[in-house]
Amino acid sequence: MSAYRFLVNGTPAEVDVPGMRRLLDVLREDLGLTGTKEGCGEGECGACSVILDGQVVDACLVPISQVEGRIVRTVEGLSLAARERGSLDSLQEAFLEHGAAQCGICTPGMLMAARAYLDAGGDDDEDRIREAIAGNLCRCTGYTKIVDAIAAVAHAD
Amino acid sequence: MPAEPPIDSPRKLFEAYAHLAAGPTRPIAGGTDVMVAITGELGPIPERMLDLSRLDELRGISLEDGALLLGAQTTYAEIRRSTLCREHLPALVEAAATIGAAQIQNRGTIGGNIANASPAGDTLPVLLATDAVILVGGQRGEREVAASDFFVDYRKTALAADELILTVRIPLQRGRSLRFRKVGTRRAQAISKVVMALAWHDLGTAGWRDVRVALGSVAATPIRAGATEAVLEGAQPTPEVADRAAETLAGELKPIDDVRSTAEYRRMVSARILHRLLRDAGGW
User: Fold this and answer.
1) Pairing label, strands B26-28, B49-51
2) Which uninterrupted H or E stretch holds A127?
3) Domain ranges of chain A
4) pLDDT tens-digit map of A46-94
5) In a 3-state reduction of DSSP, which class is residue A60?
6) Any idea which fold A80-156 has?
7) Does A42 touch chain B (CB under 8 A)?
8) Is A2-77 a domain of CATH 3.10.20.30?
């Protein structure tokens, strides 16, 4: 066990856990941030997608020792800036408007993959959006509404 | 929840070598293979882990003496973004783009792809087709291993237990053409059913020289198809040559049935991919 320090959604976090604990478990079990979901636990489904130093990653594949000193964004942090003006992140609004969520388990991961794509300058091109969320499985929507929602935000930005 | 063995996170290569020399420890880089492998369901849980992600000595892409050098910690995303890779080795960029999706490409490394030695490792046929050399090191010193000598048996490599992969050196040969193809269940997030890299030098009327036909997912290791290379060596990519090469390839491959595909499908698709690459090269 040792102490690992990093930023989560702009707030310093310190956990005293084994270094091989998955970032996913640290977020959910040690920090109580249950917005990040576990689907497959092996990097196939993307439900646990978070943004690590600006890049989307599967939190189930990241040992916490590799997060020391780094910056993590989760779905909880997505609306933090927007909340001050009493709203959600533009992507969350667009998901609501376009009906881009059904059962919801893929949604936090979808949002984070889409946010990483848009933050990196991604545009509203459908093929590029589909590639950006190719690591996120949704078993409800058929993806069309999700792609539409992301494209709408890309267009608005 | 997976196992949580103790992990060391050295920042210097010599410290990493000391950990390796001190006893059994399992290196982890991007974790895309290792984090799945150490749950205990797929074999014994390692006693210790060795985090390679802080070893800045193993980062970076450069061009030296007519070769592309890739630090072992280079991620697939870095390969895709690299102007050096895009200019000098687009086939490697194509291969990197077919691995997983953004989440995997942001974490998985070329050194990890090599060390994991999956027969389906998508960059590995490119390394075989380009006569790549793998630089490895440990407390006993550094040595070079040709990619063609590296993959010894199913998930067995020439890497000793006290060694790390440091750098991949890919010679850039003037006049070499290189093509990459992967067939999986879907375009993203799929493990290969067949993956192929084809390299050649076109000497015009003297035909093709230094032909390399390298494949993954069709044997216990990534392989070169020697009999097929012999058919193409000195030949030109005519329809007759393509037919003969495809037939030879189907004859020399000994793939297996597994969860991802069947031996018959792999043999047929391998032959067809090669045939199409030859047709494209021949312009017919």
Assistant:
1) parallel
2) helix A126-132
3) 2-77, 80-156
4) 999 999 999 999 999 999 999 999 999 999 999 887 777 778 999 999 9
5) helix
6) DNA polymerase; domain 1 (1.10.150)
7) yes
8) yes
